[in-house]
Amino acid sequence: MKHDNDPANYNEMKHITFGLDSNPVTAIPVQTHAEKPGDHFLSFSEVYQLWNDLECRYHDLKMHRNTRNAIRLAIVLGGQRPYEVVNTLWSDVNFDDATLTVRAEIFKTAHAHVVPLTDTAIDILKEQLKNKQGPFIFFKTSNPQEAMSTNTIAQALARYRDKTEIRYFNARDFRRTFKTLGGQIGLSKEIRDRVQGHAFNDVSSKHYDRYSYLKEKREALETWEKALRLKTLK
To answer: Cα torsion for 72, 78, 84, 88, to the nearest 10°?
Structure first.
């Protein structure tokens, strides 16, 4: 019904109409249990295990290096959404300023979101750069001109869970993992939210500046990187 009455669709899509006069899904009960926010996150030991396996485990873990790096980058950048990671273009990366911009069209809040790059993140990107085959950092192996599908990550993690005794988790849990473990290592809730690009309702945030809190976000991600690196070296 919204489509048929939306002025934005009138010129382009006027030949397609649905003619609905009622909502066809009204009779379907709301699945309230499925709408509850998830509360699962990986523990530090689970993150260390996953990180080390992504770097070193090849004998029984069939996972393309492209996919491993996409997962690693999502983790080291503070739980950025997998969809945003795989749809990032090389033109979104500024090696001189050590930043990565999540474009407004792929970011949930429709604002461009700037994420500082730590040394580990830069190493991952430079490794990907050696195999650059198109505009996307993470690309489909069957068509390098297209972005890797998030299903590729989901399937890779499913195979990983089958090979290990790690508790069930999925890629969405990386975001919650940073939020929870970041608190354990002393990062404030505000800076964790800003690293992940949460919308703020204060006056200064409404007049959005993508480079706001860049220094603080960089320090937070460097602390996060240090927490991961110190343990993985033990």
So the answer is: -70
